[in-house]
Specification:
It is a single chain. The chain is an alpha/beta fold and about 425 residues long. The protein has twelve helices and 13 strands. The strands form two sheets. Strands 1-7-6-5-4-2-3 form a seven-stranded mixed sheet, sandwiched between helices. It has a six-stranded antiparallel sheet with strand order 8-9-13-12-11-10, with helices on one face. The chain binds pyridoxal-5'-phosphate. The site of pyridoxal-5'-phosphate has 12 residues, from helix 5.
């Protein structure tokens, strides 16, 4: 078969190819459903662009203060339309997802306020933002306290303790949609809606913020469609569609977005300043492509789940579960397994395929981390990438793939490396 020949040229053994190809064939009906979601989201994005009269001149670079940077302002209106919110802040000056989240938190919390996470520990890099791990300039240093209620062992919300945790200082509730570096289930948008409704029934004025990283366009609705006051994410993940070279977004209630903008720039100036430089075209075009790109990444995640589950590994989500983010966790159980998996992802890349990833101490993480990525945009995790903290249970978190075919090759290559190292038997 011709296809097999091309995989062989890239180093995939015939038995690995056949094992994977059989699974890919079985998944076709499931992939049709993913394509339908992408279609809905594609129409949503096009409509938002049309409604806001996106024009060629919006791609021109703004400079200096960026007053009246119409390309930037229109893009923010497009985001607000896609998320069905009053306003949005979409900027290259937001350096990453953590920065977007920190900007929303610092902008909306004041000394004496309390922040609550009702879904367990937030993403590792937020620990220093909040002050869970002490850090200079954390929310804790500004007298903002933090409370956390873990999910119950079965993954459901601990409503009783959430109710107890909400008090008259609770100003903002942060809900992380994606599992991050944990093996808990990712929250569906509808479950997030139930949680927000519960919180608002106790204290309507509390700001509900969702860390939407990796969740955008996975479903046909977003957290802001089910009551979230703020939705926050990174442009080098889903909504940047692989083209955005930097950036983050904060979409939501006008007052909350404005306070975030006052934090990002300065009180008074807010959204009025911040030149878009030359990135507008990639922000627009990336958003335009994002629904399709996310669907490719999702197919890769489902493909990986099906392969590794059949080989006997625990996978989260499992092979049949519904999807609410693009992350696939595979519990490989050993440091060697994690390292070989990451080598495979690296070896499948269009860029830097010849380098070998190794575990390393990374800022913001409390253990060594191995990261595999051969990306056009440094660190972009909507591009095919895998990372794993080198600590039990030795799970690897795999995500991205600008195209389904690249994700597919990456997963096949990961299996190839595990197979060559004698860590799996094909069954
Ligand atoms: C990626 C991610 C972040 C942080 O984003 P960075 O761009 O890496 O700073 C925060 N929360 C979740 C759930 C993420 O996946």
């Amino acid at each position: 078969m011709e296809l097999e020949k091309y995989y062989t040229q890239l180093g995939i053994k015939p038995e690995v190819f056949q094992y994977c190809q059989n699974i890919a064939d079985e998944l076709k009906p499931r992939f049709d459903m993913i394509d339908e979601i992408a279609e809905v989201n594609q129409l949503k994005v096009i409509r938002a662009m049309q409604n806001n009269h996106v024009s060629d001149y919006h791609f021109n670079p703004g400079t200096g203060y960026g007053y009246n940077d119409d390309g930037r302002d229109t893009l923010e209106k497009v985001y607000a339309d896609v998320f069905h919110t009053e306003d949005a802040l979409v900027r290259p000056h937001i350096t990453c997802g953590t920065h977007a989240l920190a900007t929303a938190l610092f902008g909306n919390l004041r000394p004496g306020d309390e922040l609550l996470s009702p879904v367990g520990k937030p993403y590792d890099t937020l620990e220093e933002v909040i002050g869970i791990r002490p850090s200079a300039g954390s929310l804790a240093e500004y007298g903002i306290t933090y409370r956390q209620v873990d999910l119950l062992p079965d993954g459901s919300f601990d409503y009783e303790n959430i109710k107890k945790a909400i008090n008259d200082r609770t100003k903002l509730v942060t809900i992380q949609r994606s599992k991050g570096y944990q093996t808990r289930p990712t929250l569906s948008v509808s479950r997030i809606g139930e949680l927000i409704a519960f919180i608002k029934s106790i204290r309507p004025e509390v700001i509900c913020m969702v860390d939407n990283c990796y969740g955008e366009f996975v479903e046909t609705i977003e957290p802001t469609d089910v009551g979230a006051d703020l939705c926050v994410g990174s442009l080098i993940k889903n909504p940047g569609g692989g083209l955005a070279p930097i950036g983050g977004y904060i979409a939501g209630r006008k007052d909350c977005v404005e306070r975030a903008a006052y934090r990002l720039t300065t009180p008074g100036l807010g959204k009025e300043v911040g030149a878009s430089l030359g990135v507008n075209r990639s922000f627009y075009q990336g958003l335009f492509l994002a629904p399709q790109v996310v669907s490719g990444a999702l197919k890769g995640a489902i493909f990986a789940a099906n392969i590794y589950e059949r080989l006997g590994f625990e996978v989260v989500p499992d092979s049949t579960q519904s999807r609410h983010d693009i992350i696939q966790a595979v519990v490989l159980g050993t440091p060697e397994g994690v390292i070989e998996f990451c080598k495979g992802i690296q070896a499948a890349a269009p860029v830097d395929a010849h380098v070998v990833p190794e575990p390393w101490a990374m800022p913001g993480y409390d253990s060594d981390v191995i990261m595999a990525a051969g990306a056009f945009i440094q660190g972009s995790s909507i591009e095919l990438s895998a990372d794993a903290p080198i600590k039990p249970p030795y799970s690897v978190y795999f995500q991205g793939g600008i195209t389904w075919y690249h994700s597919k090759l990456g997963i096949m290559m990961s299996l190839e490396k595990l197979y060559e190292a004698g860590l799996v038997t094909l069954k």
